Please model this.
Amino acid sequence: MPRQLTTLASAAALTCLLAGCSTLEESKIDYKSASQAPTLEIPPDLTQLKRDSRYQVAGSASALASAAAPAARTANDAGTATNQAGDVRIVRNGTQRYLVVQRSADSVWEPLREFWKDNGFVLTTDQPELGIMETDWAENRAKLPMDFVRKAVGKMFDSLYSTGERDRFRTRIERTDKGLEITVTHRGMKEIYTSALKDQTVWTPREADVELEVEFLRRMMLRLGGQNLSSASTAVAAAAPAASTTTGMAPDVKVTRVNQLPAIEIQDGFDRAWRRVGVAIDRTGFTVEDRDRAQGVFFVRYAPPGTSDKEPGFFAKLFSSEKTTPALAKYRIAVTSKGDVSTVQVQGADGIPESSANADKIIKLLADEIK
Model:
């Protein structure tokens, strides 16, 4: 009897150990750049232009677009110590969160570069003149279950494991009359099976993870504020709950028509509407060439779904000597405001309102992402 009890106890303990080890560590972030893996096949409307400066470090001089914007609304800040580190603070305005820093743009650019590098990312876009940097696709390895087999094989075969998800983040820095505003936007992809035999997969977009955006903003605040990550409380999330990631348009946003052309109507003044549209552009993955806040215009590039304007896949790049880039069409996203109501419209590269079917597609994409 004692021997049988010992055997049963050992088996139960082993079962509990395996079950415990397989629990996902959702609270941890451990990114590994996907630049060492095959390039993701991304739908054409989400494709980014290749940059020749992929691994180059641009000069320290920056000419971020600046303009005298209308007076900003008073942000609803929780005012707790966890929302501020030195002269850097997290501001919550409705469903949006961003950092406000009382420094020059040049002084924060290099620390932000190092921040993403230290978090396991490779920058594919690094443009101080536009105030935009974007990471390569990366995988959060902390989501992998640390089961018995993975512990046994160790790091030697760690590359055989995959979460089936990839993340990419865009950081946007903009001068305002309140100081520098820094926003972080997330784009996600997930791998799904396309055959009944589960022998073929394709990468498809998934919902933006607002909690990840808030977490990286918090870590960025601590880095710029000169504090250690461990010294901060996780009460930021409690003080400013994460915004909903449900699909569909926000209640104060609607798609309408102005002069028989598609448009978005936002129940907000210019300052907040500009920020909301900017975040939607970043989440949707448009290539931003420039922006002019004084005129309320984003200069972007876009390729409609179903076109061949997309970057070649991993093997095409490997065995081809051609260095082609997608010829994405140029558009302007114009934001105009009258009081507390703002209108968003699509213009051609010449500034004339766009009347093609692409205007409807762009308006629909942005309206679904404006939160």
Notes: Residues 1-26, 41-81, 231-246, 308-326 have pLDDT under 50 and may be disordered. The longest helix spans residues 2-21. The helical segments are 2-21, 105-118, 148-153, 210-224, 235-239, 270-284, 314-319, 357-369.
